[in-house]
Amino acid sequence: METSITPEILEEFKERMHFTHNSEDSNLKRLLSFSYTRIQNSCGPFDISLNQSGKEIVFERTRYAYNDAVEYFEDNFISEINALALSLLPNEEGDADEEV
User: Does residue 5 come out as left (phi exceeding 0), alpha (psi in the -120 to 50 range) or beta?
Assistant: First the structure.
């Protein structure tokens, strides 16, 4: 899965963080890329442009990384990480959920 962060994703993150300058773009892009890779390693591959839940988690992890608090991220977002991982599991016919 491609882990490059598009200019659109970078701009969306900057808007969310209320950054109006471009001086940190390369650092932000690097942090977004690291976070995207980390979340994919934990949850499975997804397209950040198409998966809103995945994008939100990547943005939150990047925010924590930017603020030098990434060690607190997993504890604070474990339910969201687990939900994303479950949503990325392939659907199989005959799942127990269908029988209930």
Answer: beta
Element spanning 35, H or E: helix 25-43
Q: What pTM did the predictor assign?
A: 0.86
Three-state secondary-structure class, residue 78 = helix
Give the pLDDT score at 61.
Answer: 98
Q: Hey, what are 34's tokens?
A: 């690291």
Scanning the structure block, which residue is given the tokens 């950054």?
19
Please report the pLDDT score of residue 94 as a whole number: 44
Residue spans of the chain under pLDDT 50: 1-2, 94-100
DSSP 40-67: HHHH----TTT-HHHHHHHHHHHHHHHT
What are the distances in angstroms from CA 76 to CA 6, 28, 39, 43, 61? 27, 21, 14, 16, 10
30, burial (CB in 10 Å: exposed 0-12, middle 13-18, buried 19+)? middle
